[in-house]
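FAQ: What does the model actually see?

It sees only this:
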Amino acid sequence: MEARIVIEKLMQAANSVYDEREARNVVAVLMEDLFGFHLGGSSENRMIEVDDSILDHLIKRIENKEPPAYISEISYFYNLVFKVTPDVLIPRPETEELVYLILEQNNSLKQHVLDIGTGSGCIPITLKKLRPNWHVHAIDISEKALAIAKQNAKKHQTQINFLRTDILDSAFAEQQLPKMKIIISNPPYIPLREKELMPESVLDFEPEIAYATPNDNPHVFYKAISQFAGRQLEKNGKLYFEINEFHANDIYEIVENAGFSQIEIMKDLQGKDRMLKAVYL
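And it is asked to produce this:
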């Protein structure tokens, strides 16, 4: 089938649910990720291997507003390609900023590093690629998420120690893991009452377990991870959080009450309070 015809049909579907600019972006992403095709130019007469049934399936998924990353099972993070499915969150630009901060503030000396709630594995895999001397560990409660993370680690030829555990019941993790120099987490931090503020594409497709917290205990993961980190970090070890911009002061207090010092809240490129760093002396 000619690329021109595929583009026309996908654009028609996308225009039915998105504004013109977003529709074009969705189609551009899918054409590149699924067919290696870049929009524009005379190449639209090129033939693409896609039959009517596959094209119809793509159209239905677009019309259902399924995120393009889940349709193609491809997401880009720190110039690396990661497999994503609805079992894991789609990596976000602010998480890239957290990884950048960690790399900027820590040298390449051998040290143990842990990512809590790893999802697709984008954080530990990127750190291992760029700091190959680090011993990198990652935990998650979801077996399905860990399966995706392991696939991504294999694809990028990175040796990561994956462990399935519930950080709210951390005894098993403490028995299985060595002392860490760095602990990182982008934990669930959206209270259920704030779900109505989130995009439909997140609510309808991304795993609630990875982003939502109870209304009566919205900081439960920050509390548990801060206490765990206080026991698991080496002297002068560092804790890094991605945080809810609306709860930055509360999270600061949680980390301080857990015994951390040198606590800093940092803004992302949008000027929002999205990262926290602390040291366990």
